[in-house]
Specification:
single chain; mainly alpha; five-stranded mixed beta sheet; 9 strands
Length: 579
């Protein structure tokens, strides 16, 4: 009796139970989402200087919304501001207007994005299989994935694809025109590449498979959604198409193939000699993201085709799967089309892998949740074929259900440092405070790793930094290359005139160096600068025993020093090297 009641409770459809049953599973889903989000917030506020890794690129410049005097004429800040989607930057601007600091917002926003994603994930799953427990499993798997990867926590434009695109799919599956159009507009405003995927889905819905043939759909609703949706996508995407950025154009495939940064061992490796790596698994170029089966419970989704091909009588709930599940196939085909289009127009549509990464994650979440539900239903149905009060079948069914529940619910307990979302803690608070006390228009020259943190934690401009070496747009990256090569030459040149000219050209106020930065070993071990033209000549000069002109100022011009870095005053350097 207990097994039968448990089975009925878990596998009951929305029309077999009261609305409170569905609300129970929805609230349970939102509870887990809130718990995961709060755990991440705890990490985010664990120290004074904490920021998500990618937010150092996409959020730092938004502090201009708080203080307009920050980052004046900053080439890097101007670039990241120019590539920020309109909706994304507007959200932060509105928040700053009402007193919410961008760095504070980027730490708390993932909690709310996660909750919204959970709601739409739960609802969309019920459209495919109307079993509330399935919605709970899907939302739980989605949340575990979101908090084991850094997309959501980054609060960069890609973080918004989870709630907004799931909302689009949900409203599309329910044929709710106005909310669906609203979601399409938000996709274009926050993550434009996926507006093209949405367009592909709308077009594919004009086709139907009937009697073994592909035909035009007879449903007028599909034509209404397609015409209005494509029109809206055109309007939303038009400003991006007409934008003539000073940082463009993108590099062509021929140009990119000659650049070390895109080589197999480059920082942004893209062109890989192995076709499997290039087309399937390579970051940026490959169809399948490495985190596709994160958590590993997503692997259960691979068994869904086998379950559906098995005897239908063994899995009664299989008959309740709605035809709306074909939306997942449409999502895959639309994403695959854009993946191939992005490969054909290298970098003009951004990285090809971005078009399939999120789509495949959504698909895997839903098919895994449905597969787990059918397994629970199958073992329960198998155990109920006997009339005895309790026997081995029922024990097996109970144990199987318990194992699935424990593994799915408690999986994060097996993950070290869950949630694992890429927060970076600044380890030099005295350094950040030192620069905060300097004028807001200073320029800092440094190739040291700590330069990545200065714009975020000190709100001061850096000439270059590894974190900002984004190599896709020619207008930006060619200038970045010029700056980094000039900096490397100036830092290691024995010619004092070269160093002085560099300081005057870029109006440098401070140099920041690692204490061993002027040694050959440092240059050889610091992999990031290997790709730049100035590095080989620098290494040759150091091997010949030439002493950098900057060495004479390491002590007399130091204005800050800790156990790792030293900060030199540029005006002092000019005076010292003139003598």
């Amino acid at each position: 009796m207990f097994i039968a009641r448990l089975h009925k409770f878990l596998t009951a459809t929305v029309d077999e139970k009261s609305r409170s049953h569905t609300i129970f599973w929805l609230m349970l889903s939102l509870t887990f989402a809130a718990v995961y989000g709060l755990l991440a917030i705890k990490q985010a506020f664990s120290a004074e200087y904490v920021v998500q890794d990618d937010a150092r690129q996409h959020v730092f410049w938004m502090m201009r919304f708080v203080d307009r005097q920050l980052f004046p004429n900053d080439f890097i800040a101007n670039y990241f501001q120019s590539v920020a989607p309109t909706g994304y930057s507007t959200l932060y601007k509105i928040a700053a207007t009402i007193g919410i600091h961008p760095l504070f917002l980027h730490k708390i926003l993932p909690l709310f994005l996660g909750l919204i994603s959970t709601y739409y994930c739960f609802g969309l799953c019920l459209e495919m299989l109307p079993v509330p427990m399935t919605g709970f499993i899907a939302s739980l798997l989605l949340n575990q994935h979101m908090w084991m990867t850094d997309d959501l926590a980054s609060t960069t434009p890609r973080a918004f694809i989870y709630p907004i695109f799931l909302g689009f799919l949900y409203y599309l599956s329910r044929s709710s025109l106005l909310p669906c159009l609203g979601a399409i507009a938000l996709i274009g405003l926050f993550y434009p590449p996926y507006a093209l995927v949405a367009a592909g889905i709308l077009v594919l819905r004009l086709l139907s498979w009937e009697n073994g043939c592909l035909r035009l759909s007879g449903d007028r609703t599909n034509y209404l959604f397609c015409s209005t949706g494509l029109g809206l996508i055109f309007l939303v995407m038009l400003p991006y198409a007409l934008d003539k950025s000073e940082f463009g154009p993108t590099y062509t495939a021929a140009e990119a193939k000659q650049m070390p940064v895109f080589a197999p061992n480059g920082r942004n490796a893209f062109f890989r000699p192995n076709p499997k790596d290039y087309w399937l698994t390579g970051r940026g170029s490959g169809m399948f993201p490495k985190s596709l089966f994160t958590p590993v419970t997503h692997c259960v989704g691979l068994f869904l085709p086998l379950i559906l091909l098995w005897r239908r009588s063994a899995f009664p709930l299989a008959s309740r799967i709605n035809s709306k599940i074909w939306l997942l196939l449409q999502l895959f085909l639309a994403s695959l089309t854009m993946f191939l289009a992005a490969h054909a127009t290298i970098f003009k549509l951004y990285q090809p892998g971005r078009y399939t990464a999120y789509s495949l994650r959504f698909i895997v979440v839903f098919v895994s949740a449905i597969a787990l539900t059918l397994i629970i239903d199958g073992v329960g149905n198998w155990a109920s074929t006997t009339e005895t009060k309790f026997n081995l079948k029922k024990l097996v069914a109970l144990i199987t259900t318990a194992i699935i529940a424990i593994v799915v619910v408690l999986y994060p307990c097996l993950v070290e440092d869950f949630p694992d979302v890429g927060y970076v803690a600044g380890e030099m608070p005295a350094l950040y405070k030192f620069f905060q006390q300097q004028p807001k228009d200073i320029m800092i020259a440094s190739i040291a790793p700590e330069a990545d943190n200065l714009p975020t934690f000190s709100q001061r401009s850096v000439l270059v930094a590894k974190e900002y070496a984004v190599p896709y747009q020619k207008g930006y990256y060619s200038e970045f290359l010029r700056r980094i090569n000039d900096l490397i030459r100036a830092q290691y040149t024995p010619d004092r005139a070269v160093l002085q000219n560099f300081i005057n050209k870029y109006k440098i106020d401070f140099f920041m160096l690692n204490l061993n930065a002027l040694t050959l070993q440092y240059v050889e071990d610091y992999g990031w600068i290997d790709d730049f033209d100035a590095t080989p000549e620098t290494m040759l000069a150091l091997k010949q025993g030439k002493i950098p002109a900057l060495a004479s100022a390491m002590t007399s011009c130091a204005v800050f020093q800790n156990e790792l870095v030293v900060v030199l005053n540029a005006s002092c350097i000019v005076k010292v090297t003139r003598n």
